[in-house]
Write the structure tokens for this entry.
Amino acid sequence: TNVGAHAAVGWIQAQRGKLDEAVACFRKIIDLEPKLIWPYFSLGRALTDQGKVDEAIACVKSAILLHPENSGGHITLVNALRKQGKLDEAIAYFIKAVELYPETVAESIKGVENDDVIAAVASRLKDAPLSDVWYLARAQAYARLKHFDESAADFVTLIERSPKKPGVFLYPVYQALDR
């Protein structure tokens, strides 16, 4: 059986809002290839969209146990936990995602569905001593929230800290502004 075909059908059905069919496709993939991690995340998103948040969280947490270094699972979990009103736990998983793969901080921020998680992270980082990665995360969070003065200040700090490579921060700015 072709895992790719099941994945394509599952993703299309999820986009169409046919979540029962999507869930069935993702479950089939997991049955066929239980060590693949991404079907768990796709299943978790579909279950969350169905309102089966407890089941989604259990599914994604089991995937994270298989591959704890995967930041995508943490972001999927952030969204499910947020729907349960577990903001503190969602924030903890967001922070873990950024720590796992700092180079994907822009994608992590874009993957979070609710601005309140992003605002809470930015607020918690407001007065903390920050590494470059967390300045970048906070700058992008501020940009997403349209707090452009704060975002610009953090990007300026980053450029001052790394004056020889200011271009490194251009793509993340572009991504944060969703251009």
About this structure: The chain has eleven helices and no strands. The chain has a mean pLDDT of 82. The first helix runs from residue 3 to 16.
